[in-house]
Each structure stands twice: as structure tokens, then as C-alpha cells.
């Protein structure tokens, strides 16, 4: 690493002296920091009309109050990559709240403003989602802490809190400098070469979430981590302490990572980098997951149409969490999410039992009570054709079969309260699964028969 050893960096970091950290961030940037400019106004003309119009109006409003306004982040990156993006991130030098209020007024929409973080948001009727922030400097009291936010002096200082050079490009929106690209960290070159480069060596320690963001970006763009950033990623993933990292933030980022079908490149990346350590999990990621993920998508398409209430990202992530074990139970997440995450771990023993020819009632007895999502996970993980066929048969033919009679009907027909009620209902159900007793009348008649026989047995 040269000039400053990584161990020294960790020492400074863990000493928790945020002023020192800031100094090191600025002094040990991974690239030469200087103002590189380029006129991008011709490219802006190619933006979708609603985005262009919004940017012009927002720029004019800033100009009216002599405030500087910049477009930053993913949108600038995606202009170069020619990828459509409906999210805009703006940074304003000046009083953000009154600016947002007036901007929201122009578009006649509601806005949100957070004074602590100096951020705001508005959504336009055309679907554009706009995040705004004042110039901010962030420091982190420990790895993964929420940052302490102070006003930054200028846009350069604001940019130091960003994750990758390709996300550090800013575009000026004021009239005199309309479309002027400012590239302090040589992000344009990294963009052209497909490189993910951190701005400074503290970056992953400051906010380990950036590791997941980088992986998402790598999958989306095909970019790779540049050597030194990669070394830092490995070092942080193997050595840093994530005990105080907010699970909530990690899961939010995981939700984005698994929001779309799992790309084979994602499996490859997760096999190489132990990213699940951010969730305090040591997982072996099997190559088979590529195929399993593909299979999951086809089942999601097939069963999703039935309007099952399936959160697809949870399903995708559950495939990776197959061996996570019960630690997941301690996560503060929705209980149905936990059940899906744990499905394979809890029910893998069933897969062995399902690897033979089973009568309908035997099959139903094994799988009864499992939710659709759990069944889908087992289906994808199943190793043999016979197991898959059994699970599919249960899902398609048996699962929705319900009795049209209940315990009250049996009581009304002279049965005393007691365990026999359950036994008789089970018996009727078993016969129903075999394909007969379609109507309520047939089920009642059969139940009466059983009640009568049980009475005879007693006598
Ligand atoms: P995408 O389009 O893939 O969601 P984005 O880059 O627009 O990506 P946002 O989450 O909208 O992502 O964030 C906007 C910008 O804010 C990013 O480009 C990045 O510069 C910065 N940013 C967001 N989250 C972080 C973070 N955890 N650490 C550092 N910078 C961040």
C-alpha cells in the first residue's frame, strides 16, 4: 500500500479520532485529486424529456438564489453507460429546506426534509424520484455507525463521503456552467475502463455497506474492483468487526442486491468474497446456486401468477442462506421472512423422506403446514427428480384440498367431544385426497359411517 501501512490506518481508525480520519481520507486518496472538467451539455440533450426539463427547472431555481446545484451519483454514471435511470441525486450549496420547499411548489408535489441529515426527497407525478442533499461531511465513530453529519465546505469535501470514483462524478446544473462535468477523482477514466475504485482507504471501514453496493454495481455494469480497492475489500471482510453494523442497513442493501433475478456473475462474486460476514455468517456458496437460482425464477414465474404473496428478494436470498442455521431467528425482521430464510435448514430432512413413491395422503402428511415459499425453496434445493415431482404434486394437486365439514358437524351428528373428532376428520381427509368425497354431503355421509363404526367398536 506504500506511503501509509494498512495497519496504521486501522489503528487510526479504531482510535476513533474523526478529525484524524478525515485528514487521512483526504491525504491518502487512492487517486490524484484534481479538478478535471468536461463539457457534457451535448450528452444531456439525449436525456429523456422529463428528466431534462426537471434538471433545467431545478438549475434555474438554484440560479435565481445564486446557489450552486449539482447532479451527482448514479444518474451521472448512467448517462455515460447509456442506462435509463429514474432516480436523481442533487446536491445544493446553500439552504436546502427553503430550496426544496420552493421546488416542490413549482411541481405541486409534497416533499420530505430531514434536518439532521440535511437531506430531502420529492417524487414527481411522472415517476421521477429525486433525492436532495446539502453539502455534507461525514465521520464515523465506529465501523458501520451512522455518520455524524456536518456541513462540508465545498463540493469536493462532500464527494469524499461517496463510495466509488465512478459514483463521484458531478454535473453542474447552473446556467453559466450547464452540463459541466467535474471529475475530481478521475472517475471518468475508471468508468471507461470498467473499474471500481474507492476514494480513500478508510472507505469500507467507514461504511461496510459499500462492499455490497460495489458488488451490486459490479453485477449491473460488469465492472471489476481495481487492485488496491480489492485488497481493502478482502482485508475488511476478513479482519473488521461488524458487531455494531446495523442489520437493518445490511438487509436493505441485500434487498436491492436480490431485487432482480440472480445473475451468474453474482453467484461468482459471492463465492469469492465472504460478503455474508456482514451478517455475521460464514457461508460456503456452492456453484450449484447458479442453476438453483435459475430454477427458482421459473418457479416464481409459474407460481407467482397464482398471486402467492411472495417477496422475491427474500426467496432469492434464502437460497444463499440454506446453511445459515438458527442465528437468523435473532434477526429483527418479519417472522415470515425468517421462516423462509430458515426453510431449507428446518426441512431438509424431509427431502430424504420425499425421495420415494408416496401415496397422496402420505405426501400431504409430510408437507402439510409448510407455506408456499418454504415449499418452493425445498423444490429448488431438491436433488432428485422424484423429490421435485412429489413436491410439485403436493403444490398443484393436494395442497388446496380442504374438507367441507368440520368438528362441529361431527358433534351435531352425535359424536362426543374428544380425540376421535380429529381422527375421524383425518380419515375423511385421507379419503378426500385420494380423489373421492367431493361434496359436503358425501363427506358427511362418510363421517357418519365412521361415527357409527366407532360406536359399534365400543359396544
Ligand atoms: P443505483 O442507481 O445503482 O441505485 P446510485 O449510485 O444512484 O445507484 P443511490 O443509493 O441513489 O445509488 O446513491 C446516490 C449516490 O450517493 C451514489 O452514487 C453514491 O455516490 C452515494 N452513496 C449512496 N450510498 C452510499 C454509501 N453507503 N456510501 C457512500 N456513498 C454512497
Q: What's the tally of helices?
A: 22
- Counted beta strands: 12
From the alpha carbons, calculate the radius of gyration and give it in angstroms. 29 Å
Secondary-structure class: alpha+beta
Estimate the mean pLDDT confidence: 90
Helix content: 40-55%
Q: List the ligand species.
A: adenosine-5'-triphosphate
Reading side by side through the largest sheet, how are the strands ordered? 1-10-9-2-3-6-5-4
Morphology call = elongated
Share of β-strand residues: 5-15%
Q: Biggest β-sheet, characterized? A: 8 strands, mixed
Unreliable parts: none
Distance between the termini: 90 Å
Q: Which terms would index this structure?
A:
22 helices, alpha+beta, binds adenosine-5'-triphosphate, 459 residues, elongated, two-stranded antiparallel sheet, eight-stranded mixed β-sheet, 10% strand
Describe the protein's topology:
Blueprint: H1 6-15, H2 18-27, E1 37-39, H3 41-44, H4 49-64, E2 68-72, H5 74-81, E3 87-93, H6 96-107, E4 111-114, E5 119-123, E6 129-134, E7 136-139, E8 148-151, H7 155-159, E9 170-172, E10 180-182, H8 187-193, E11 195-196, H9 203-206, H10 209-221, E12 224-225, H11 227-239, H12 247-257, H13 264-272, H14 289-304, H15 312-320, H16 335-353, H17 360-367, H18 372-381, H19 385-398, H20 407-412, H21 420-433, H22 440-458
Parallel strand pairs: 3-6, 11-12
Antiparallel strand pairs: 1-10, 2-3, 2-9, 4-5, 5-6, 7-8, 9-10
The protein binds adenosine-5'-triphosphate.
